[in-house]
Amino acid sequence: MAGGFFGGVHPEYNKELSRGKSIRVMPLPEQLTVYFSQNLGAPSNAVVKKGEEVKKGQVIAQPGGFVSTPVHSPTSGKIKSTGFYPSPVGTLMEAAVIIPDGRDEWEEGCDRERDTAGLTSDEIKDIVKEAGIVGMGGATFPTHVKLSPPEDKPIDILILNGAECEPYLTSDHRLMLEKTEEILEGASLFARAINVKNIVVAIEKNKPGAIEKMREAVEGRDGFSVEPMEVIYPQGAEKQLIYSITGRKVPAGGLPMEAGALVQNVGTCLAAFEAARLSRPLIQRVVAVTGSGIKNPGNVLARVGTSFRDIIDFCGGMTDDTAKVISGGPMMGVSQYSLDSAVNKGTSGIVLLKADEVAQFENEPCIRCGRCLVVCPMKLNPSALSIFAERMRYEETGEHGVADCIECGSCAYVCPSKRPLVQHFKRAKAEIRNRSKKAG
Amino acid sequence: MEDEMKDKDRKSGSGKNEMKREEAGKNKTSRKPPEKKKEEPFRERFIVSSSPHIHDGRTTSSIMRLVIFALLPAALFSIYIFGVTSLRVIVISICSALVFELLALRIMKRPVNISDDSAFLTGLLLALNLPPGSPWWLVVTGTFFAIVVAKQIFGGLGYNPFNPALIGRVVLLVSFPVHMTRWIAPSAWGADAVTTATPLGRMAESLDTLGHIDMDLIRELFSREEIINLLIGNTAGCIGEVSIILLAAGGIFLIAKKVISWHIPVSFIGSVWLLTGIFYKIDPAHYINPTFHVLSGGLFLGAIFMATDYVTSPMTSSGKIIFGIGCGLITVLIRLFGVYPEGVSFAILLMNAATPLIDRYTKPKVFGARKAA
Asked: Cβ-count burial of B227 within 10 angstroms (0-12 exposed, 13-18 middle, 19+ buried)?
C-alpha cells in the first residue's frame, strides 16, 4: 500500500450515499448554458453568435492561447442568446444558451470510429487538444499542455488518479467500475504520447470494488499496476499523490513533470479514449449528485451546459432544508448562489448540504493551537499566513509561501477558532497576483 | 421570458463589475453585487461561502472543556486532602476570573463571549497554583492580574504573550511571599489545618542552614512511603500540583484526545530529570536525587497544563521540544541555584517570552522546497 504524505485529515467520507448507484444518462434538457471558457489558463474566445444554428460537437469557442482549449456544442440546436450567466466558479461567466433541436446531430467528422493503434505521439496530442480535454478532477487544466513536457524534463511514470479523496464524490469510483477498459485504453494513449512504460492506477482503499476491477483489467497489460492508497484527504492532490506513489517531491512552485511524473484523472483518460477512438470531443461528464439535501442521490452522465437545477430535478429534487449547494466536493468545491449554474468540464459533483452540516467560519482570533500546521500537506504555517492576510500584509504571506498553498482546506477543517483560512489565502494570492500585474 | 429579462439585466448592469470582482479574489462579501438587491433577489437563498464547507467540529470551547475535564481529578483530589479550604479557593478563583473577563470585555467593547470557557480554565489553573489556605483577596488579586492585565489588556484570547494564570501566580508570589508560601499539611475533611513546608522547601531550607543535605531528611523523604505520598499527592503543596498520578492521567487523556502533543511535557520533565541527575551524580551531598525533583513541586502541573498553553507556546514540534528543554533548564537552575525552592512558573514565563523567537527559527520547510542557495 502506498500512503503517506505529510499532514492530511480524515473527514467523514459519506460516499455510501451514491457509490452504489450506476451512472444514469441524463436526458437532453430544454436548454443548455455552455460557458465559452472551460479551462484553467487563457479564456477561450466565442466563435458563434446569437441566432446561429450549431451541430453537436461543433466548436463554439476557440482556444485563446497554448494553455487553453476549444469548447464544443453538446448537442445540435440554436443559440438563443449569449451573455453572462452564473457559473460554478461563483462568478458570472460568458456563455451561450443553446436550445436543442432534439435531433442531436453530430458535426461532420465527429463520432466516427478510428483505429488508435497507429496513432503517433503528436497525433494523440492533437486529438486531445482539439477535443477540448481538460483535467476532469476539477482543476480543468488543459490536458495537451500536460502532455507536452520540455525535452529536459523526462517523464517516467504516469499516475492515473482514481484516489477521489473528496468526501461525498463518487463519479470517479463509478467510472472505474463501469468504464474500466476505456479508462485503461485512454491511459495507454497518454502513455504513448509521452513515451512512458510505467502506469500506476492509484485508488484509495475505500473503493475495494474499483481496485479489484482495475486489477483484473490490468492483468496482461504491460507496464500497468494498481496501487491501493491510504484513505486520507488530500490523497488525490497531485503533489501528494506523486509523493505517495514515488516518494518524489514536486519542487515548491514547480510542476509534476519536474518530478518526472504525469498525473491524469481517470475521467480524463475516458475522455481521451472517446476522442481518439470515437472522434468525440469532450461534451459530457459524470457528475455525482449527492449529500443529505438531494432526494435521490446518484451519478449522472450530463452534458456540459446542463443546469444544476435540471440535474437536481432529475435526481428527485432537493429537500426544503437544503442550505448549501456545492459544485465539487465539500473540501474544495465552490458554493453556489444560483441553481442556474451549469455543469462544466470540471464539475465532478454537486453536493447538497443541510444547515446543520454546513461549517460556518468566523474571524475569531487564532489561539495558536498548531493543528493547522500538523495537517497542512504542504508544510505551511496557515496560522501565520492567515494573520498576515488578516492584517493585509500580503508581501509577508508571499514570503511565507502562500503561493504553495493548494487550497485543500485541511487547515480550516480542523481550526477550532473556525477561522476562514482558505478564504484568507485565496484573497492573499489574488492580491499578490494583482500587484505583480500592476508592477509588471 | 423571465430568464431573458434577467439575462439582459446582467449584461447591462453588472457584467463589468463582476469581472473586476473576479480579479479581486473570491470573497464572499464582495461577490454579491449591491445593485442586485433592488432587482430580482436570488431565487434561492443558499449559504455562499469559501471552501471548505465542512468542519471537524472541534471548537475552542470544546478544547477548553477537555482541559478542564482533564484537571478535574487533580482538583477534586485536592479538595479531598486539603478540605473545604481548597474548594473555597477554587470557587473564588473561577468566579472572580469570569467576572473580570465579563467586565473587561464590556469595557473594551469586545464581543462578550465567555462561553469559550477560557476564563473558566484560567481561574481553575490559577487556583491550582495557589496554596490551599489562600485568603480570598489574594485569589481575587491573582485573577485580576491574570485576566485583566495579562490577557485582556494584551488583546484578549489569542493575543496574550504570557500564560495568564502564571502571571497571576507570579505577581502574587513576588508581592505576597508570606501568604504564597504558607502551606498546610494534608488532612481529612474537617480537621484543623496544620502549617508545614513542601518537600522542596524543606530541602532548600536544609541546604541553607547546613550547607549540605541532611541525610536524615533524605532518608525520610526517600522512604517508600514518602515517594508513594508524592505520587498520590498526600503531601504539602499548591492545590493542584500535589497528585502526580492524577496529573499524569490528565496529561495522557489530553494527549490521547490530541488536545496537546507529548513534546512539551516529555521534553520539560525529561530535561529536569536529566539535568538534576547529572548534578546528583557529580555531588550527591549537595544535590537531590532526580526522581525527587521530578515528583515534587509544580513540575507535572506546569509541564502538562501550563507550558502547553497554545497561545504562549511554540507551534511546531521541534519548537515545542526546544521550549520544553528551555523550561526544564531554567527550572533546574532556579531550583538548584536560585532563592526560590521552586522554579516552574518562572521558567515557563521566561520561555513564553522566547516563543516568538522559537517560532521564527523552527518555521516548517515547505513541502518540496528547494535547498537554500
From this structure: middle
